[in-house]
Design brief:
1 helix, 4% helix, 3 domains, 5-stranded antiparallel β-sheet, DUF2793, Immunoglobulin-like, mainly beta
Length: 352
């Protein structure tokens, strides 16, 4: 039979031993030191100046003085001297200095937080289940940084799966945001938890946006919908080529242009104005080819530019959708050679 116990190395009382009380008391001293182990500190490298009988310490690395060579040992002040106990794997201690629990892992003392790896679930003021393996019931949940940024990751196995945040009222879904069924990011809402409307979808490949919250067509003016850049007008497309598709403007709002025949402006509603300045012929009609053609007969005018003559009148003759013939007359049928301003007002597209 061995002389000491296997776990705490307590001395056994031998059958033929004298002064059995000495051995018994020695075992009690060890038990008194290690049972319900609560140490004053585990950060000291040498004994404090004042120490009470029975006080226990865990010697910090680099022990000096009476504690030299006793790193990680439990030092017990007993009968005016120090007794040292070597810890074994699994020993636990309470540090009064920090209020922390300590665990010896066989090599060193570490903070005793318990083994929280691969738990079946965690419930904080609530009960977890096989689906909701982390359940928290509280007014708020805080996730904060430790000196820099902070990320909350929601991972899914494949593109066809769902990674989302679901917002509920009395356990009935009202809004969801995430990647549901695809890798596009979507936001959808529901009034009853059964019928859902996808308000926004952001393409994972292009970054473009679609959904019920957006304008659906150029003529869509539904209140509350967001306007699409290709359906509305701004600094980038107010002025430019105007166009029309099935009666709906598909280009800019205003188009301006000029060429050898004059200048013109077109509006998205179909209105077109052309103007030019020429010197008319005194021997016959002068033809003005419009700088842009019309779709119906325009209203035209000619204004002679002179301050020395009176009783002048412009007269139009042959015309088409692309040109018009004119002359300027003085009283009677006398044509005059004068500098004139020409104006034509009409439509570049027919009325819808």
């Amino acid at each position: 039979m061995p002389d000491i116990s296997a776990n705490l190395a307590l001395p056994f009382i031998l059958s033929a031993q004298a002064q059995k009380h000495v051995t018994h008391n020695e075992a009690l001293r060890v038990l008194d030191a290690v049972v319900q182990l609560a140490v004053e500190s585990h950060s000291l490298k040498q004994p404090p100046a004042m120490v009470e009988e029975g006080a226990r310490y865990i010697v910090a690395a680099g022990g000096t003085g009476p504690w030299q060579g006793r790193d990680d040992s439990v030092a017990v002040f007993d009968n005016g001297g120090w007794m040292f106990l070597a810890p074994r794997a699994g020993w636990r201690a309470y540090d009064r200095e920090t209020g922390a629990g300590l665990l010896h892992d066989g090599a060193a003392w570490i903070k005793d937080g318990g083994n929280h790896q691969n738990l079946p679930g965690v419930g904080v003021n609530a009960a977890f289940d096989k689906t909701n393996r982390l359940a928290v019931s509280s007014p708020a949940t805080l996730l904060t940084h430790e000196g820099a940024g902070h990320q909350l990751k929601v991972n899914k196995a494949g593109a066809a799966d769902t990674a989302s945040l679901l917002f509920q009222t009395d356990w009935s879904g009202r809004a969801e945001m995430g990647t549901a069924g695809t890798d596009d990011f979507a936001i959808k809402v529901s009034a009853d938890g059964t019928a859902w409307t996808e308000a926004l979808r952001i393409s994972g490949s292009s970054g473009h946006v679609s959904g019920a919250a957006l304008q659906q067509a150029p003529a869509d003016t539904t209140p509350g919908r967001l306007a699409r850049a290709d359906f509305v007008y701004g600094p980038g497309n107010v002025v430019g080529p105007v166009n029309d598709v099935d009666g709906v403007p598909s280009g800019a709002v205003i188009e301006q242009g000029k060429n050898a025949n004059g200048e013109y402006v077109r509006f998205a509603d179909g209105t077109q104005i052309c103007w030019h300045a020429v010197t008319c012929d005194a021997t016959g009609e002068t033809r003005w080819v419009f700088p842009a053609g019309f779709q119906s007969w325009p209203v035209a005018s000619v204004t002679p530019h002179t301050i020395y003559e009176s009783f002048l009148a412009g007269r139009f003759f042959e015309r088409s959708l692309n040109w018009i013939d004119f002359s300027v007359f003085q009283t009677g049928d006398t044509r005059r050679r004068l500098f004139c301003h020409l104006l034509a007002f009409g439509r570049w597209k027919r009325e819808a």
